[in-house]
Amino acid sequence: MKAVATLASGQVPTLVWIKDFAIHQTPLAADYTVFQWSCDDQVDRDLRNFFLKISAKMNFEQAVSDAVKDRFYLSDFHFGQRQAGGLGLAYLLHTTAVSLPSEEYWRQTHVQVRHTWLENSGMEREKEVKVPNLSTMTHVTVISDEMAGRDQAALKEQPVILAQRKANCFPHLTFGLDIDPQTAELSVAILNLARGKLITLDGAVRNWRLEGTEKPALPMVHTESEATMQRYGNKREFRSISGQRNIFRLHAMIGSGYRIHFRIDKPNKTLEIGYIGKHLPVVTFH
Q1: Which of 22, 82, 118, 258 is most deeply buried (CB count within 10 A of its CB)?
Q2: Mean pLDDT of the 208-231 span
Q3: Would the pTM of this model clear 0.90, i.e. be above it?
């Protein structure tokens, strides 16, 4: 559950049930079930509350589109000789399966599944597919990178979806409340440049977290001069993710006429992006 909470990065994921499955009665150890774990005062309360929140979220009928349900019902998924419907649904939804590391094969970051399905013509097809699988904390970085890479590729094809997909594309960054209206005014060309710079910043925070250094190594990043801050500091004040107004003094260049302004959030080991747009006014010296 800690791995799921870490991968979610503050978002609330949806668990999709394929059928009535007594997950709460699943044994975690001898005479110790998931239900007992969820009521155990020795377990971190936030983790228990997180589990209760997502385990009651949705079921198969509510969460999955008709197109995916139809494809699922016309398919068989097998892991070895076992039915693997959960892994199969994760594959069809292009998402991640969550499992308990009760046996060695559930400790893999990807589980190979045999997918057999009927086409509209009635012809049967079969192929081997690999499904991302999350069961331990060691999986989080690998799967997070894979998910972000997939979303970043989609963003490259459609830069205009930056506002909707920013949290998925850049999981190590946070974004202030003023970002969406700012990016709505940018051209496709500038959004593409912004995407590349955000990938660089996201990677820097990822490395910062993995290496445990005091501060992130940020390539090609600048801070505004004191003279500029004294005269135009208010122009660099934007709403943070909490709604509070903060100064975003650091910036990265997007071409020659646009900037990304951000601040370092050391307690949460992230960069918060406050502004993406045209070059803000500065004091120049001649």
Answers
A1: 258
A2: 91
A3: no
